[in-house]
Specification:
This protein is mainly β. The chain is built from 2 helices and 9 strands. A hairpin with a 2-residue loop joins strand 4 and strand 5.
């Protein structure tokens, strides 16, 4: 068993246990890339509430519209007739892709809303909404799938 599996077993299980009946709707996602700096960093592990409705300013996980199966972590900026306009917090990140590149993301490709970061423990906490152009805020608390940004 790898270190991440052990960490998920220790930290993630506590988060899921605390969630009670909603456990089936929560899933772990690992952040890769630097498009959501400084709020979210490569190696951060997040808890995503599947099916949770996005709201402007929320950090969400969605399937990349041009690369089926690839998950992306972005900020929901606004709802359009075509879906959600998703943007990176760090527009200067190398290789970043968001709605500026592929347009609005259809509702069916939005997996859910990020509710917490559980790893690393020193930065664990809930992820709160921010306004367009502002960074993800993380408050201290408790917070396997890999996501590119």
């Amino acid at each position: 068993m790898g270190i991440r599996a052990v960490l998920w077993g220790l930290g993630g299980a506590a988060v899921l246990a605390a969630a009670g009946a909603g456990v089936r709707r929560l899933r772990p996602v690992e952040v890769t890339g630097e498009s959501m700096l400084p709020g979210l960093r490569p190696g951060d592990w997040l808890i995503v509430r599947s099916g949770a409705r996005p709201a402007p300013g929320a950090v969400v996980v969605a399937e990349h519209p041009g690369r089926p199966g690839l998950l992306i972590v972005k900020r929901a900026v606004r709802r359009t007739d075509e879906g959600w306009w998703l943007e990176s917090d760090n527009q200067r990140a190398a290789g970043r892709q968001d709605s500026w590149d592929f347009g609005a993301v259809p509702d069916g490709l939005v997996v859910g809303r990020v509710v917490a970061r559980y790893w690393p423990l020193s930065r664990a906490g809930t992820v709160t909404r921010g306004l367009s152009g502002r960074h993800a805020a993380v408050t201290l608390g408790r917070p396997a799938h890999r996501s590119e940004q």
